[in-house]
């Protein structure tokens, strides 16, 4: 059966489970500014451009699949966070979302700090010239080597995640003749996902030290007793892709209660509170994320109110957005290889990448949007599932979306909002070569992470 003889859209939508697209968008050629980076638009001849460059030319020069990162959009978002939080707060970009040396330099120039959670991320940050005192080191099982490297480099804070780590970091700092600034990561019993959160006494997860049962208070006691550690604050991170501030409110209230208990027991007011990251972005037109200035206002009001009630002076707030800064700034460009209609169900569109460049759909059931970007089309909508080229049926990039029914091999399609947790989680599954990240700005494109080659693969395989 030919593609054009295969009507799609509403008819196919009937078979979708509730909560999924029930109708195709009014205009398949439209690019919703919510999910695309700021400089993305379509030329009159229908080709999509980013930073003033046509995706067809970009595909020719850099190949596909590839991530195109809109540098001015990245800088604008970083600046918006920095400005929103002002001088009484710190913004730490969570490097795990996506880290490269170019990105580190942009963050430095825009006045942000940086979170790292491994020796590799720390090495990247330091080699790009991020001052160590603007780096925070995270992780639930930092190795002795990683801790020593971080202390030696003079990182601004190490976030302690367990009782063992309190002693481990203190021992290493002492042996180096240093006093290390630390925060204690607590789990406040708030599990937040998108529009819902659950507040419980305990949290069943590997990170942090529980507030419940006086565990966190005991961690504070032990940390304050060690001369090699300077306890500067309490850290809480409640989840990811969160739209609702209510979970942060509960977390802040519980952390401030700990600060008050610490003051009562030890006579010290800890000067910092870190509320973590996890702020959501729009992956599809259904998502409505908040602006940084709204988030900053809400968080500072919550902390101020809780501290006034506890008669504490307001601590310095820090936040750690990763996704909310880099997520919306990039898209993945793919070339369509095959188009396979399954009658009565959907059409499978295979692209030249897949779960090796975007594991989030398989891992988290994440939703994405997709658009035909090398041309416009007047064809009707076709319900598609965009899949990769891996030997794995779970290799899905976009679960359910609509593309024009005349989609054909050779067309370029793009998946927006892939700046966070895509290249950083990319793998070599099936010995795939991880795609490059190309920064685009003011009509110029520059590779900031190059494409892997078969030589790169074989270099690790020592035979
Ligand atoms: C993952 C993580 C972040 C960033 O989360 P986003 O969802 O990307 O904002 C911030 N802080 C900590 C401790 C994290 O683990």
Describe the 3D structure:
- The structure is a single chain.
- With 463 residues, the chain is of the alpha/beta class.
- The protein has 2 domains: 26-70 and 328-460, Beta Barrel (Lyase, Ornithine Decarboxylase, Chain A, domain 1); 138-321, TIM Barrel, CATH 3.20.20.
- It contains 13 helices and 24 strands.
- It has helices at residues 10-13, 55-62, 71-85, 101-109, 119-127, 144-153, 163-175, 215-224, 246-266, 292-309, 323-326, 360-364, 454-460; strands at residues 41-42, 48-50, 53-54, 66-70, 89-94, 113-116, 135-137, 157-160, 180-187, 190-194, 196-199, 209-210, 229-235, 239-242, 272-274, 316-319, 330-342, 346-351, 371-372, 381-387, 396-404, 412-416, 437-441, 444-449.
- The strands form 4 sheets. Strands 4, 17, 18, 19, 20, 21, 22, 23 and 24 form a 9-stranded mixed sheet that branches.
- Strand 2 (48-50) and strand 3 (53-54) form a beta hairpin.
- Helix 6 crosses helix 7 and helix 8 (215-224) packs across helix 9 (246-266).
- The radius of gyration is 24 Å and the shape is globular.
- Mean pLDDT is 94; it is low at 1-16.
Q: In the CATH hierarchy, what is the superfamily of the largest domain?
A: Alanine racemase
In CATH, the topology of the largest domain is named TIM Barrel
The number of domains is: 2
Task: Please identify the top-level CATH class of the largest domain.
Answer: Alpha Beta
CATH-level-2 architecture of the largest domain:
Alpha-Beta Barrel
The distinct ligands, each listed once, are: pyridoxal-5'-phosphate
Radius of gyration: 24 Å
| 3D shape | globular
- Mean pLDDT equals 94
The major beta sheet can be summarized as:
9 strands, mixed
Percent helix, as a range, is: 25-40%
Structural class: alpha/beta
Instruction: Measure the end-to-end span.
Output: 47 Å
Provide the low-confidence segments as ranges: 1-16
β-strand percent reads 25-35%
Give me the count of strands. Answer: 24
Tally of DSSP helical segments: 13
